[in-house]
Every structure is written in structure tokens, then in C-alpha cells.
Design goal:
The structure is a homododecamer of 148-residue chains. The first copy, chain A, is α/β, with parallel strands linked by helices. Chain A contains 5 helices and 5 strands, in the order E-H-H-E-H-E-H-E-E-H. In chain A, helix 4 links the parallel strand 3 and strand 4. The longest helix of chain A is centred in the last third of the chain and has 20 residues. The two termini of chain A are 15 Å apart. The mean pLDDT of chain A is 93. Chains A and B meet through strand 5 and helix 5 of A and strand 5 and helix 5 of B.
Chain lengths: 148, 148, 148, 148, 148, 148, 148, 148, 148, 148, 148, 148
């Protein structure tokens, strides 16, 4: 079972950027934790990052070999209908994750365009959000396999 | 470490109520799973349910001996400032969980009055939402202990 | 055939409360008329009143033996998602009635949270609204029986 | 006692039009039921239909010999201030009826311009809405006579 | 110089309709005053009334021989884009008049769709509004003639 | 194959009315072009015009022998739920056309009540909009025939 | 009979200011016309101008000897609750006039705070608006005298 | 003269709850001050607290022997139409008090559903708000007695 | 201890202006009561009135020798950011008072620009509002002195 | 005469993506049809697709040799001011096309940022929308040539 | 070349007022810097301050001998249509400056009524905003001279 | 001291694009002026342009060696949360500049997502906006150095 993990714009700066909100862990540390958990759960993961909306659309379109996507769309959460449409188009379950609790932030960050087409959303637990998101993705993928 | 789990209004009917949205598991089955996971994680849990806003306020006010709260406020998610104030008043981290993905439902269910005062939110994974929520609560409580 | 009739908050004061809006008939007089009409239509009715949102949720949850509910949710019409969810949960047709024409009153009284889950609504005919509501409930219950 | 019954635009197509929403009874079948009930209640009724807003205004203006109006303004419910003004101008009590529960439909069908000047509203009971509307109209007309 | 005067829907009931708002003068008395003033100002007038939006559009389209229009669109003031378009299409100056002060009435009567294409508006002086409107129309027509 | 073409209010004045927006072609010239194209496409067309909302509702109700409707509802685009309901009631595909690009005009002209029940919309190409609309109507009608 | 005429802020610049909107007549020319008309109607007038909101409030408060006020509140039309309250406080009928048609201008100029407490409004006829306003004021004052 | 004082939800925690906003005085200390002031003013008071909306409705319904109510509705200030209706129903003057200045807090705390049916409101003076509220209640009750 | 009392626009007309809303007491009678209460409380007061927004800003700017301000901003309550900024700039506690209950009046009177920078607000008790406001101001000033 | 045709994001997946909404034709099949029609109309076309907003801006900037653009901006229709500005900057007529009827879809898909700067819009006819759009583009380009 | 510089309400308190937002420089220090820069740029400046909206309107009306205006309208930025109209009336380019970045402050400070009639706006650079504003004013005035 | 200057989408077309709004100077001419001013102020500048949102995010992320950024985000001003987040992430002061006065343009151009995280904004002075922006950036960078 392969799971695709996508980090959206500015997440490559994690650990140096607004640490009061996003925490002090770097993206590499998070990726290490994700790889560890993947091993524990017996799944394979691929991790990608981009600051470009169009590149993220491309990544999702090419995800046919994955069983689920874990995506932190960051700023594009609130502005990208193109990413939303890509998720719908490939028809692979996507779990939306956020480091911060988006419901406690600026008005324009409280509405997600991705959430209505995602399988579910995990928001506000810092790097732990990614771990919970990966667990959720595996659980959904397993449920689907069993349903078959 | 003790964790309080609160089921809000109408959740006592789970498994018989709108199963298309909420799934076919009864509240007892969910509680059994929660007890199993608690044992696995080595924590103690107490589980309560009420249809009365005032009783839930009371429960939270009396939660001083707990390290965290996992709460599914159900219908009160969207209308109860009293529950919100109670959470702020006791100053214990609360994890908000929902069975359905509230961001895919009616307009009035997409806005949570609880979220801005909760530690985080898990929404949309069916009974699995409670399991993820319990994990999150334990993780937060541990982080706090370590910080001390 | 048994029909449940529920009076919401403050309706126990009918006849003494704002008679310019709600008329001078007491709740007992209305209940007498309802009992008379029930006899005429050959149905059995039970009548309850409460000022507590939670109690009304309980009443609806315990209405499994009734064929229909006639409910005047009064003030909770505009704020109670819990009552709305209870009606959906029990899956018994509910007829919403109002003494006054809610469309002629304050802005916040013109929107009913109950209406979208009710079978229909009767509003503005004073105590006669209850009589029409009971007739509607019987008609719906009969239609359902025939459909079986 | 004479009662005027007005069917608004497109209601002449009842029984063939969107039967999922409006039911399979034709306008003639409804009119027959209304005539039957009128006889039972001992009142005289006149029934008219028009697709033209101006003609409905004319009908209402010429209704001086009637004791009450039962009107299903259909599409004009939401757009016609002229019909609203006509009802106010003639000063005869009007009962607004709808086949479908307008509170469950598109946003723009949930607001009635007629309701604030109507005596009351009956909505959502299919053809039975007309029967309840006629009963309400007779009840109001009787109350007025007694008041004299 | 010929001026066309148009009375909109329900104005044929003036003097009997909501006299608290619209006054006790009948439409015939207002027309007499208008004829008197027309004579005094040395202009010819034609007076028409209709409850039908389409007929008022027709009247305006056929007004090519008139130098100005004085129109009280009544209820259509707030709903008719068709009358607005007709005024723009014939390119004859229109003076909008209202008996009551529309700015003191219901929210939906405070916005005029006609005003942005009218030369000007007179509102709130009862039957005197028509007299001032006729004076304004003559003044505009004269100004145009001089400009030639 | 017969197609019905309906011109809404004020379109009879085309060529003389606001030529900066609507162009200098008269309604007769447009109708000639439509007849020419109909011949080319091998379909029969009937062309009607009315300034009256009710008459347009009547036209649509009587269109049972037509395979499709091409309609420019003009001012009624933005105000007529009755025309919308008529289109839904007769269940014949309707193509909505506009001479001007309604998305570049006043706020209230940018929202169409007809579009959600139309098959599609062509807007902004002047008289060419009608030609494209007729082609679209024929294409839809053919597709339906094939589907049978 | 004495009538008070008040010019609001920036009207002292008339004839030099945005002549495309306000016309080329100076405030002195308008005042001359007003004096001429006053003589013709047999009334006495006083004319004042101020750029200061407080001064206009003072003027109105000291208007007890006048039978009516004709006021062009200019920019304060849309912002001054103080002038509105002053008009209500002195209880003398006020006629609101505007040179331009405020309904054709910027959004914020289309709402008048004065209109709901004015007797009526004349808008859009250039300097002629003042003449019509003076006639309206005299007509109202006469009607009041007769009523006594 | 008897005055009823009602503390709404969560106020039983005063002194321990968010002391930065609500101050460090406990509810007992406030009640002592109220009893002292009552003695000084020569009135009798009864003090009640509840976290339940329905219980507060009941309290108000049973307040017939009191001359005035001083109520701090706390979180219910912003959501309870039932309490609002109860105040209107018993027809006893109610003075609304708040410890914090609700106009400086979150958007949803700035609108009071109770204020429009209260005699007046005192907000922002900490425990002193209750003292001012009691004085206001006595003053209103005296005025009423004198008016008799 | 010196307290500054400021009456806003149109309050100099109290007792003659809309007595149904503002009561029949003149401003002199209120001032007399204030002076009496000041003597009783052992404080010195200065009382000022102005219809000019700028003058009130000046008064506040020159209030450095006062320990607190009691202000009824009247109409400027809803429009003056300048008065709001002046209160913030001088950093002296201000108590906002209103004769009428502003929450029961026109929409635009229900929002105070002053409240978010005031210490607290007293609204709806007629002249008694000023007395309660003065008491509140003295209480705040005393609390501040003690804190030093 | 050369025409540029641009497919926006996710359209490369046509035929496999949400076929209930977008139909079963692949982008290659549509392009073949477009090439066939281009030949029939005697024009040359170039066809491009991109998932990147910036690339589409670049394409439009480099379109100087084309006489018109036919663009389906897909998801960027609703979010891209940059594409809008590019269309305005190059000053070449653009025809906006949509496969689905955007007026029948989610709220956020009903508003086009491109429409106000496009020559016109064709929406809802499936692949036929492109054919009608190409015809419209040719017609506009011919009209421009004739005007020279 | 003469430039007029206008400081709006409360700016005379600069350096003592909310220094966290507005900085610690007094108005005299800013004026000295402005005089120094004026000398450097070879222009003459006049500096005025007022707390009165009407006086600022007067200042602008009397600015005919100046080539440009630099204005910090402070609180009136958001409320004064009278100052806006005065700027339009005198037809002299005005540069709007703000010490703080108004786009980072309260909602009501983010909308400027002056900006749409100003030549441009400089916001957020503290006292430096005035210096940049003076440079901009000189640049605009020079451009105008050259254009002649 | 090094300053980064970023031109957003479509600015590479300056001088040819909508010259009525953006002026006739090309981007090269503006860059020349910027280089001249940089020399005069003794600072080093780098100038970049892109039509791609992701590329601009990349540019900002790589700006660590610069002391300040001057950015004209053009169309992305109103839609890009990603650019906003990048500015916050790198923690270098950014000065936002616009050629046109965005407050005089379409509604959607009047709100900047960048302004709340920018140091300040200069808008409306044509190419001069860049010069003022560069001066502001140097002034901020100097102030920071002094603070160290």
C-alpha cells in the first residue's frame, strides 16, 4: 500500500517560520517521523513539496498508483479550486491536514475549499496532525480494500 | 492520567439515527473501542452522555481531575456559548470530535463555536474520529507533563 | 392511531402573556378543543409542555409509539438544532404549528430551524393553528398507512 | 358566506409538472375536493387560475363580495409586491397556501412577500394544504362575523 | 406640448385603500387636479392606469408623441426591470412620483429600480407629489426645447 | 424538428433602443437571419415576442410540439420565477440567449433566475448570440433523439 | 408664513464645482430664483448656508418661528444623525431637496438618513428641485393651518 | 418591595474563572454586597443561579410576587429567545447587567437578545454593575408605584 | 475628585423633544439632580453641552484634570470615530450613558462606536441613567486611586 | 486568420474525470472536432493546455499573432485576476467557454472573474460549447476586419 | 509652488497618544521635518490642524492658491463625505497620508472615503509617510505644470 | 544595503497595456529610474519579474540577503495567501506599491491580502510609486539598523 504526502507552499521553511504558530520542527524532522510511522504501519510513502499551485495539481493528477493522499495545502487551502478539482478528478481519498488550528486564525483561513472533497480533516495538533492524518489515510484505504 | 469523554445530544441514538450520515455502530460499540484503546495507551477514561446543555456545562465544570477532555458536542457545537465558556473556564485541553465531516454538511453545521477554544478538531472519520481524538488528547497531555 | 402534541417554552402562560399577539385563550382551553377534535377524528392524543430544551428532546426521542407529532416549538423554533436533530432521528412526521404569523414578527423569528425537517407548517391562525395541525397530522399518518 | 380561491401561475399544469415535488393530482381533482369540502362546511366557493400577475391583482380587487381569499401565489409568492398591495388594499383576510414545504426548497423560495399581509400560512401538505386553508378561511370569517 | 401620466397597480383603489398611508383622495379627484394644473401651465395631458406590468411597458413604448412621462410605478417601482428598460428604450424624460415617502416604509420599498433611469423623483407629498411631478416634467421639456 | 424562439420585453424596439449596448439591427433583421439559418440547418422555427410575463408563461406552457426553446428573457431574466417554473414544468430543453454580455452590466443584471433551469447560456455576441443559441438547441434536440 | 431654506456643505461653491453633475448656476442665482418664487407665492423666506454640521443643527434648533424648512443637506444627508435628530426635535415639517438624482450616484449617496424624518423628498431636477421643494413646503404648511 | 436577582450560567464559578475578564470576587461576595445594598435601600431581595436555560425560564415565570428582576443572563444573553419570551410574558421590568463590557468582546457577545425587552442595561463595571442594576430596578419600581 | 459630564447634540432641547422617548425632564432639571448627587457623594462636577462634534473632541482633550468622564454622546454615539479617538488619547475612564434603551431603537442606533473604548455603558433608565453613570464613574475613580 | 484555443487546469483529464458532469469525450476527441470545424470555417487554430496559472498568463501574453482567443479557464475562472489582467493587456477578443452550465453548480462556480473582460460567454453545452465558442470567435474577428 | 498640509482631528496630541501605534514624535517635530524637506525641494508649505470637520472643509475650499494638498484626515478618513466633496469641488490634487498602516487595524479603519478622490495614498511609515506624501505632491504638481 | 524589487504578473507589458490606467512608461524605463535613485541613495538593488505565483513565493523565500523588499504584487495582491505567507515567513520588511490608486478601481481590487503583513503601502502615483516605495524601504532598513 502506497500513500502520497504533499506539503504545500512555504512549508519548506518550517521550523524557521512563525514558530509561535507552526512550531520549531523542520520539515525534515516531520518527514522522518512520517517515515518512522509508515514503517510501523507497514505502508510505503512518498513525500513531495511545492510552492506552485500548478505543480501540486500535476502531482495529484499523477497519483494513480497511490491508495490515498495526505495533503497540507497550506495557503492554497483557501484559494485553489484547481487543487480541489484535481482531487475530485483522480478519485483517490485525500486527508487534509493542518499544523495550526485553522478555526482559530484569520477569517479567510477558516474556510477550506478542499475540505468538502476531502475524506476528512485533521487540524491543530502541530506535527502530530501529519501522524494522525497518515493513520486516518491508512484506515480509509484498508476499509476500501475490505469493502472490495 | 485520566481523560474525560463527553457525548453530546442525540448520540445515545447512534446506530439507529440517520445511519447514512452517522454509520451503524451503536454508542456502546464505540465506547467499547474507546475502552480498548485506552487500555492500549495506558490511560484511564470516563465516558458521559447528555442531551442537556446545562448538564454538559456541569460535567466540564467538575472535570478538574482530568488531564484532557474529548468532546463531541453534536448539535451544541453550533449554538452553545455556555459550553464554550465552560471549557475556557476550567482550563483543561479539549479535543473536539465529529463523526461526520461537518464541512460537507449544511451551512450552519460548518461553523463551530467550540473550535476556537479547543486544542484541535478531528472531523469526518466515523467512529475512528473518537479513536484519533483520544490519541490526540493523550499526546497533548503528555506534552504538557513533559513541559513541566 | 396516537398523536403526540408538544407545547414549547412559555406556552404554559398562554392567555396571560402578550394577549395582543397570542390571544386570550389559556393552554387548558386549547387542550380541551384538541381533545374534542381528536374524538371527532377518532384518534388518541397525548399533550405535553416543557420550558426545557433537553426535556423536549427527550419527549421526541420517546415518541416511538406515536404516528405523528404536532409541535409548537415556540422560542426554540429559532435556536434549537437539538430538537431538529431529534425529529430527524426518530423519523416520525412532525407538523410545526405557530399561534402567531411568524412572518410578520421580528427578523429572528421569521426563520425556523424546524421547518426544513417538518412535514409542513401551519402559522398565524391562533388556537385554530393547533386544530389544523392535528388534521394535517392525521391526514399524513393515514396516507402513510395506505402507502403500506 | 362566499370564499374566493386563487391558483397562481403554472398550477394549471399540476399533475404533469415535477410530480416529485408537487404530487400527481391534477388541478381539477383538487378543485373537486375543494367543492366537496365547501359543501360539507356550508360555504360557497369560486375558483380562478391565472399565469398573469396583473390578472391576479384584478381578481383580488374585484373580490369585495367574498368573505375571505385562499391563495396559492406560486412563483409570485416571492416576487410580487403588486399582489401583496392588492391584498392589503381590499382588506379581506387572505390565507396563503403552498403544496410543497417552501422552507425545504431553494433559498429564493423560502421568503414570502405575501406572508406578512396574509392572515396565516399553510405549507407542505400537498393538496391537503388547500383543504386546511379553506377550513382556516372559514374559521376566520366566522370569527369576524361573531365579532360584529 | 403633451405629457403622459401613468398610474401603476392598485392606484385605481385610491381613497378606499390604506387611507392612513395614501390619503383619502380618489384617483378621479387627483386626475381633476392634474387637468386643472395642466390647463394653468398650458400643456396637454393624457392619463392612464393599469395593474399589468406588461401593459405599462406597452404604454411607455407607445409614448413617442409625448415630451415627458410622469409615472407612479407603485409596487412595480421595486420589482420591474422591464418598465425600467422601456423608459430607457424610448428615451423620453420620466419623472417618478410617489404619494407616500418611500424612505419611511418597509425595507423593500426603499429601493427604486426606476430612479436610476428617471430624470428625478418626487416622494412623500400625497396628491401634491403629482402636481410637483407635472411641474418638473414641463420644466424639463422646456429646457430641452430651449437647448435645441 | 420544430424550435420555438421567444423574444422577451422591449426587444421589439431593437435597433432604435440603446444601440450602444444592443446594436443597430432591428428585430426583423434578426428574425430574417434566424429563418435563414433554420433553413440551412433543416429545422422549422416559430418566433414570438411579448412584453407581458404572463403571456410568456402561456407561450412556454403551449410549446409541447416543439423540440427545444431558444429564449431571450430580457428584463424578466432577473425577476421572473414564473417563467423559470414554466420551463421546468414543460420539460423541454431551453437555451437562454442575451445580446449583451450580462456579466459586464449592472449588478442586478448579472444574476439569471433562468440559467439554473436552462440547458445552457449564450451571452454577449449581439445578434450572433441568437444564431449560436439556435445551433445549440438543434444540437441538444439531435442528441436527445439519438438517445432514444 | 415664514419658510427657512438651508444649504449644506460645499453648496457655496455651486457653479464652479463639478458642473457636469451640479450645473452651472451659482448659489446666488438659485437664491434669486427662490426669492422670486417666494414673492409669487406670498411667503417670506430666510436662506442660510454652512459647511459645519453643528451649525446646521443650531440653525434647525432656532427655527421655531418658521412654518417649514427646505433643506439640501448635501454630504451630511448620508452621515448626520445629529441633523436628523434636530429635525425630529423641533417638530417642523422639513422638505429634503437634492440638485442631482442621488439614486444615480455612488452607493453611499443613495441612502439618506434625513429622508425617514422628512415630510418628503425632491431629487434630480437641478435648481428646479429647490423651487419644487419650496412649493411643497408651502403646500404642507397650508394644509396644517387648515387642519387647525 | 421584593426584587428577584438571577445569575446565569457559569457565574457560580466567579472568582476562579478567567479573572482577567470577570474579576476575582466570588459570587458569594457579590451576593453579600447586594444584600447590604438592599438593606440600605429598604428592599427585600431573592438571589438564584442556574446553568440551565429552562430553569431560568421557570424562575422568571414564577416571579409574579416580585416588583422587578435584575438578571445577568451570561452566555444566554446572546442565544436565548426563550428567556426573552419569558421576560415579556410575565410583564415585570427586568434590568440586564453584565460584569464585563460586552461591547469590547467577541462579535457574538456584542448583540443581546435580552436588551430589546429589558427596561435597560448596565454593562462593564464588574461587581459594581449589580449594585447599579439593583438601584435602577428600585428606581423603576418606585416610579411605577407613584404612577399608580 | 473632579468628574466631567458631557451632554451631546440636541440634548439642550430635552423636555420638549420627543417626550415619548426621552421623557419630560429638561436638561436643567437633570443637571440639578446631578449636582445634588455629586454633593451627596462628595465629588466636584463640571457639566458641558455642545451640538458640535469638534467641540466635544476639544472638551475631552482638555479634561486632563478630571478623574473620569460621564458622556451621553447622543447622535455622535453612532458616527464619531473622532470622539472615540479622543477618549482613547486622553486615557481617562469614560462612562457612556443613554436616556433611552438604544437596543430597542432603529438599527443604526443599536451600534455604539464609543462603547468599545468606554469603561462601561448605562442605557435605558431615563434621567436615572445619568445618576447611575455618575455613581459608576466615582466607583471607577476610587478603584484607581486605591490601586495606586 | 489564426485563433488560439486554451484549455485550463484538469481539462487534460476529460473523459475520465467526473463524467456525470463533464461528459465522456476526451480532450483529444474535442480537439479533433475543433480542428474539423476550423477547416470547415477556413481558419487556422492552435490548441494549448496547462494546469499552471502563470503559464496561461504567459500563453495569453504571447498571443499577439492571433485574431481571437477561445478559453475555458476551468477552476481559474473563479480565482484568477492575473488571467483577467492578461486578457485585458493584450487587447485581443476572448470567448469564454464552459462544458457544464456553471449557473447550476456550487455557489463559488457561479461567478466568473473572466466574463467581465471577455467578449462573451458560452456555457453548458458540453463539447458543443467549444464549437459554438469557435464560431463566435470567428464571427467577432470578421466583424473587426470589416470595421477596418 | 505652494503646498498645503492638513492634519486632521487628534493629531495635535501626537507623541502623547497611543505611542505604540502612532510613535513618540510630536506634531511639532513632524512639522519641522516637513519644513526641512520643503526647503530641500524648493517649495513653500503651509501647515494647519483642526479637530472640526467643517473647518477642514473650509480650509480646503480656501486652498485655491496651492498647487497640491497633503492631508492626513485621521478619523474623518472613514466618515466624512463633506471633506471628500470639498476635495472634488476645488479640483486640486490631494495626497492622503496615514502614520499607521490602516490595513492592519480595526475593520472600520480599513475603508477610506477619501482615497477614491485622492491622487494617491501613502500609509504605514510613521512620520516618514508625511515626507513621502510631500514628495508625491511635488511630483504631481510638477507633472501638471509640464503638461501645460 | 541590498533591496529586492519584485514586479508581479503582467507588469512586463507596461507601456503597452491599458495605458489610460497604468501610464506609458515601459518596465525598462521604470527600472532605469529605480537604478538611478538607488545610486543616489547609496543602496544596491536587484529587480525581478514573474507571472507565476509560485515563482514569486520562491523569490521571496530566497531573499535572506536583502534588507527590505519592494513589491508590486499586481493581480496577486487580491488573491495570493501564499505570497502573504512567504512575506511573513522570511521576516524581511516589505513595502507594497501600486501604480494605480487601487481604491478607485473595481470592488475586488480595493482589498489587499498583502497590506496587513506589509510595512506600509504606496498607491496611485504611477511610476513615482516605485520611487517612493524604494525611499520608504531604505528608511525602514536604516531605522532597523539604528535600533540594533
Amino acid at each position: 500500500m502506497k500513500i502520497l504526502i504533499i506539503h504545500g507552499p512555504n512549508l519548506n521553511l518550517l521550523g524557521t517560520r512563525e514558530t509561535g504558530i507552526y512550531g520549531s520542527k523542520s520539515i525534515d524532522e516531520i518527514n522522518n517521523s512520517l517515515n518512522g510511522l509508515a514503517k510501523e504501519l507497514g505502508v510505503e510513502i512518498a513525500i513531495k513539496q511545492s510552492n506552485h499551485e500548478g505543480e501540486i495539481v500535476d502531482m495529484i493528477q499523477k497519483s494513480k498508483n497511490y491508495r490515498a493522499i495526505v495533503i497540507n495545502p497550506a495557503a492554497y487551502t483557501h484559494t485553489s479550486i484547481a487543487i480541489r478539482d484535481a482531487i475530485t478528478a483522480v478519485n483517490i481519498p485525500a486527508v487534509e491536514v493542518h499544523l495550526s488550528n485553522i478555526h482559530q486564525r484569520e477569517e479567510f483561513r477558516q474556510k477550506s475549499l478542499i475540505a468538502p472533497v476531502a475524506a476528512g480533516q485533521v487540524s491543530g495538533f502541530g506535527p502530530e496532525s501529519y501522524m494522525l492524518g497518515l493513520r486516518a489515510a491508512v484506515s480509509i484505504a484498508n476499509a476500501k480494500k475490505e469493502a472490495v
